[in-house]
Amino acid sequence: MTKLPTLKLLSFILFTFFLSACSRNTQSSIDSLNAILDAERSPDIAESHIRSLPYPASIVTINDRKPILMILAFVDSFGDSGAKQLTWYAADGGSITTKNGRIVHTTGFNTNNLENLSSFQATPPAPIKAMSWQAIYDWSPHYRYHFSADVSTQSIEDELITTFLWEQSTKHITEQIRFTSFEHDLVNEFWIAPATQTTKAFTVKSTQYIGPNMDKVNMLMIRPYVEPINTLSP
């Protein structure tokens, strides 16, 4: 395994071309994604296949079941902050949407889906910046909206995350989520690569629950989407 001092960026120009193509022709792009993901229907995700991927990808485990490969299909910007919302797509049609590394929407889960995770602020703060905030959860099926929770963040330690592709220094952060309408606590964990002079901070790995007594989702950004810092003057 080649060890790198920091995670090497994939081609941002290639990402931009692919993702803009998604916007122009959604069905054609989804067909292309399916062709990529169809190669991963074997019992184990092949290392050689991941090495050959030209697009951002995540290895996802739900409730400790067999890992699945998810490909980044869409990147959208929202609000004045321009925070990126990333939608990761699986071969079975399910998807996970993340913002600042935090899961904010899911589709295709067997029992419950997270319809939206928001906050009383404009957008949930990035885990690496937050100390405390109030979250609002919406779930489906059935009408289960506007459940509030108090979120407190704690930085644990610096950790080195290693895969067969790279190694990356990260900040290990935990979030304790306490729902105010019923007695239930959750703990989410994030391993975040700090910002550099040329790139913004990004989540390398996370363990998150979509709600109380609901699915646990482990995400490893085996080929992360890394957003560069715009150094051009407006």
UniProtKB/TrEMBL annotation:
UniProt xrefs under PROSITE patterns: PROKAR_LIPOPROTEIN
First and last residue of the signal peptide: 1-21
Pfam family, one: YjbF
Keywords: Lipoprotein, Signal
Protein name: Group 4 capsule polysaccharide lipoprotein GfcB/YjbF
Source organism: Marinomonas rhizomae
